[in-house]
Amino acid sequence: MSKVIIIGAGGVGTVVAYKCAQNPEVFSEIVLASRTLSKCQAIVDKIGAKNMTADTVDADSVEQLVALLRRHKPDMVINVALPYQDLTIMDACLECGVSYLDTANYEPRDVAHFEYSWQWAYREKFEKAGLTAILGCGFDPGVSGVFTAYAAKHYFSEMEYLDIVDCNAGDHGKAFATNFNPEINIREITQNGRYYQNGKWVTTGPLEIHRTLTYPNIGGRESYLLYHEELESLVKNYSSIKRARFWMTFGQEYLTHLRVIQDIGMARIDEIDYNGTKIVPLQFLKAVLPNPQDLGENYRGETSIGCRISGLDKDGKHLTYYVYNNCSHEEAYRETGMQAVSYTTGVPAMIGAMMYLKGLWKKPGVYNVEEFDPDPFMEQLAVQGLPWHEVLNLDLEMD
Ligand code: NDP
């Protein structure tokens, strides 16, 4: 019998709440909390599970978080609020003796900078407290790391080249919208690109490198090299990797809007004075863009996210390996009222919590997902709505 608190009631939080409610034998009590109680209550009412309640917290305040955790005494916090809140939630977990899981690395508000150092610095504190912190347990980061760990465990003696490929071939019918929190999304993709090669990080201009990649059941899509946070932990945990890159698809229309948003200063994350009020342009833009949670209804098509890996197999022979999941926006919407990007993030977050609560991913300290046994997680992915497929000795298109 285990109790969890989900913090964050956006697109991802909604999916996590649905999926926890579907697994009452693991999640015997569920609390959904965010800044806005009415949003949490509406989700709880819609799901209609007897073991789920709503609460409210400002997760920027350790004091409020501690009060929330003392009120409910959960076994784990599933943090699907924004990356700004990671450290305050980790602090509160330490103070109250609660384990922790998130889906995105900590980011300071005033600079878009992606690295795990801030959270890895908590390792000793979690170890000493006998608590587990699982970092980056969405799809990417998350399943991308579990896929890599699965490849290392079952197929490779040395993984040499890793490409994480993320395609959204869906159409929501809007001129411009982001699939998850617009502020976080635009901060991420307007940064310089970066990839790992022969022990060094190579920096590129934003979206400078691109190529057409072929995705299963979808076909060719223009894919752009981005920096993505899981690259940092994967090259550290698999020292045989010579090159690691991350690719994401964008349509021309999306990129044109993005360029205009940047050119006119709406992607700025510093404060400006507007008629005596301080505003951050990107936060204002978020307020006028479509809410990612409302995209689901008319979303058609599917996502395809996977890992393309080459290297030496267990017998020392050359091997190429592609493991991926395709997820339909329509099916995700039918099940949870959310589109596939929220779905593919929320399902793995629930599974990560399940792994911890079943004692399979329980070890004191702060870990990235690839540091745990991938097998039980992969088993659950297939059961919980994200079936995966693997192809060996395919042309990976990844020279
Ligand atoms: P949304 O913007 O839809 O939702 C964010 C939620 O967090 C809202 O409910 C909001 O509350 C809540 N929140 C924000 N600030 C606070 C605060 N100070 N205290 C309490 N609650 C707060 O985001 P998404 O659901 O799209 O994304 C959630 C997370 O998932 C993000 O961190 C994102 O980076 C991550 N993500 C990870 C992916 C992966 O594959 N690893 C992919 C996609 C997203 P309120 O509504 O009350 O304002």
From TrEMBL:
Q: Which Pfam families match?
A: Sacchrp_dh_C (PF16653), Sacchrp_dh_NADP (PF03435)
- UniProt-listed InterPro entries: NAD(P)-bd_dom_sf, Sacchrp_dh-like_C, Sacchrp_dh_NADP-bd
**All copies of domain Saccharopine dehydrogenase NADP binding, residue ranges:** 4-134
* Domain Saccharopine dehydrogenase-like C-terminal: from-to ranges: 138-385
The name on file for this protein is: Saccharopine dehydrogenase family protein
Q: In which organism is this protein found?
A: Paramuribaculum intestinale
